[in-house]
Specification:
Aminopeptidase, globular, binds coenzyme A, 24% helix, alpha+beta, 8-stranded mixed β-sheet, 182 residues
Length: 182
Amino acid sequence: MTTAPPQVPFNATLRDGRTVHIRLIEAGDNERLIALGAALPENDWLHVENDLRSPEVVARLVNARDAEHWRQIVAVAPDGAIVAYASARLLPGRSSHVADIQLIVDEAWRRCGLGAVMAGEIVAHARQLGAAKVFVDMVEEQTAGQAIFTRLGFTLEGRLINHIRDRQGKLHNLVVLACHVE
Ligand SMILES: CC(C)(COP(=O)(O)OP(=O)(O)OC[C@H]1O[C@@H](n2cnc3c(N)ncnc32)[C@H](O)[C@@H]1OP(=O)(O)O)[C@@H](O)C(=O)NCCC(=O)NCCS
């Protein structure tokens, strides 16, 4: 697992030459996050826990920006649009040493390394929160997400069969990847 500390705020140049500014989520990001959610392909909602299309969900996320157990980062395009979101949150109670990761990249900004940049940064935040274990779950078909986290040192810890049902009623396996911090 990466040992680098969090870097935000910073600018990143992607493989296709485009640049983004990566920073912590801020008050006033609501509309930009809802726009990111509205632009996601319908299938992506299989992979995502927090529905960014919902103003209530987004308000909860933005209101949690100063929470001690939660870090959220966004990538902002030169035109001001939020084009990626990632979060690390410590679980409550008996798993309070474990952080859960979420990651979403706007479809028009995929395949140029942004997901990997966001993943590396949010894992650094999870470590800074004090997590001894970091995990991410996704449907088995999400090979890009698995490639990103495997490269960061995560390994497969679980595979839950037919655990997710899509809008058409089709069942999908859920995989859990995790990394233990020494
Ligand atoms: C998963 C996701 C974040 C990837 O974002 P991204 O910006 O495209 O990722 P990157 O460009 O950094 O790609 C990282 C690696 O993933 C793999 N990858 C990316 N897209 C892929 C695809 N469509 N098919 C197969 N592998 C893919 C590649 O190995 C890639 O590295 P490479 O381009 O150097 O070969 C994005 O597809 C997404 O937001 N999906 C919906 C939400 C989700 O599934 N989140 C994951 C669970 S947390």
